[in-house]
């Protein structure tokens, strides 16, 4: 089956996009096609409990949510639907994008081409600010205004539609910690780009360095001048994002069939079993290796003469004297 096309241009990269807490994928699906390269297929992720999925229960655990999402879109990682992909996440969505990529890789599926994150502290830092998801509606909105410049909502119907998923997402955000890496579950092997707006009150640029712990490949961070936390319409933001997406397209172009067709890799469970098997073999090998023989010192070695001992002491004292 031929690859999908946009304006007659074959699509070569799929970009999974994860929104901020309480948000929707509208900004991705309706605005980004205007400035991203035509070769990119934007897939804005619609979380349950809002917009077209308002009748579904929301989620309060990002790891479970990503597992359920991957189950739903598994067909996108099989032929003929597969396309090389990158993931982008903004704020809370950055945590989701990281977890999404790790879970896919650990299933033994094609790993991402790149990971792009914006406006979020490294998730392994845990909860930095006091949780607000349990606050009354008025106090919650005031905190969102103070932290993220989120406009206040006064219409009761809109409040009833928007605040419940916001609370769910904030609870999921506060509860998210990525699983620690070990000898088997290692960091991602794709390039990672992270950036933040200069006017973001919650994410200092100086705190972004620990995002590097999530990749063994290239890492870069950028500061978008004069941009706030929500920088959708900022020119510098669009340029930074477009540059990061173009880097992913360049990788696809360079690697060609290495990344354009479905491959299967060992799952995380298979890797762990192989690691434990190898460790057991090494331990058994060390256990059965003969111990090196020890050479006993002869008890018949002659003791130094008393004269030589006295002479040595005299030489030593003279040496110290002249130091």
UniProtKB/TrEMBL annotation:
The keyword Hydrolase applies. InterPro entries: AB_hydrolase_fold (IPR029058), TEII (IPR012223), Thioesterase (IPR001031). Coiled coil: none annotated. GO terms for molecular function: hydrolase activity. Its EC number is 3.1.2.-. Residues 14-227 form the Thioesterase domain. Keywords: Hydrolase. Residues 279-314 are annotated as: Disordered. Residues 279-296 have a biased composition (Basic and acidic residues). It comes from the Eukaryota. Belongs to the thioesterase family. This is Gramicidin S biosynthesis protein GrsT.
């Amino acid at each position: 089956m031929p690859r999908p096309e946009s304006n007659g241009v074959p699509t070569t990269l799929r970009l999974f996009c994860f929104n901020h807490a309480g948000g929707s994928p509208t900004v991705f699906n309706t605005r980004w096609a205007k400035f991203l390269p035509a070769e990119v297929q934007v897939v804005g992720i619609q979380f349950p409990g809002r917009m077209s999925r308002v009748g579904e229960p929301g989620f309060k655990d990002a790891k479970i949510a990503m597992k359920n999402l991957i189950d739903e879109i598994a067909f996108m990682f099989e032929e003929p639907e597969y396309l090389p992909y990158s993931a982008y996440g903004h704020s809370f969505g950055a945590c989701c994008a990281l977890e999404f990529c790790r879970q896919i890789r650990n299933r033994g599926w094609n790993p991402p081409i790149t990971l792009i994150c914006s406006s979020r502290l490294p998730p392994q830092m845990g909860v930095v600010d006091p949780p607000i998801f349990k606050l009354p509606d008025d106090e919650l909105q005031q905190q969102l205004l103070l932290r993220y410049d989120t406009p206040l909502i006064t219409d009761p119907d809109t409040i009833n539609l928007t605040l419940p998923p916001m609370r769910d997402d904030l609870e999921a955000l506060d509860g998210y910690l990525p699983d620690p890496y070990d000898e088997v579950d290692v960091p991602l092997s794709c390039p990672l780009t992270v950036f933040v707006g200069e006017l973001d009150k919650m994410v200092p640029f100086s705190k972004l360095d620990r995002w590097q712990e999530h990749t063994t490949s290239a890492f870069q961070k950028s500061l978008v001048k004069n941009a706030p936390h929500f920088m959708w319409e900022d020119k510098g933001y669009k340029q930074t994002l477009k540059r990061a997406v173009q880097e992913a397209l360049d990788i696809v172009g360079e690697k060609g069939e290495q990344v354009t067709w479905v491959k299967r890799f060992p799952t995380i469970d298979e890797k762990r079993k192989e690691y434990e098997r190898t460790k057991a073999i090494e331990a058994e090998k060390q256990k059965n290796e003969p111990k090196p023989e020890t050479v006993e010192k002869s008890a018949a070695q002659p003791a130094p003469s008393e004269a030589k001992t006295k002479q040595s002491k005299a030489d030593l004292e003279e040496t110290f004297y002249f130091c």
